[in-house]
Amino acid sequence: MNDSGTSFSEKLHMAVCIVLQWEWTTPLKDITVKETEPALFECEFSVPNVNVTWSVKGEPIEASPKYGIKSDGKKHSLDVAKCRPTDVGEVSCTFKDYTTRANLTVEGKKNNNIAMFVSRIIDKVKI
Fold first, then answer.
1. SS (H, E, C) 98-124
2. 3-state DSSP call for residue 86?
3. Which pTM value belongs to this model?
4. Which of 112, 63, 61, 105 is nearest to 83 (CA)?
5. At residue 55, what are phi and psi to the nearest 5 degrees?
6. How far apart are the first and last CA of the chain?
7. Which domains does the chain have, with CATH numbers?
8. N or C: which end of the chain has fewer CB within 10 A?
9. Which DSSP state fits 90?
10. Is 119 a residue whose pLDDT tops 50?
């Protein structure tokens, strides 16, 4: 203990707390994919080895064939397999009171055969 009444270990603890500021150093980013493509969301937290919770459209999710979840030190990722229009919405990653959010947009497939068929019908109706 020194003259101020604070021990070395207390000062060290205070210094470590100041250095380890909790924040999303790399937040999630909005992603747009074509229908049936995967979407990979990635983020990084300032403190390693924290347990995060992933949510899609406000509902917590767990690893499954649809959702691949990985954590490696400070990096966290969510892989959404075979995206469909029903997957459109907000994706979030949360640790305690710290949340990062992004949106998933899925562009539907364009079926050229149907478009050509409709175009031919319209041409025949005009005749």
1. EEEEEEEEEECCCCHHHHHHHHHHHHH
2. helix
3. 0.72
4. 105
5. -135, 145
6. 98
7. 23-111 (2.60.40.10)
8. C
9. E
10. no
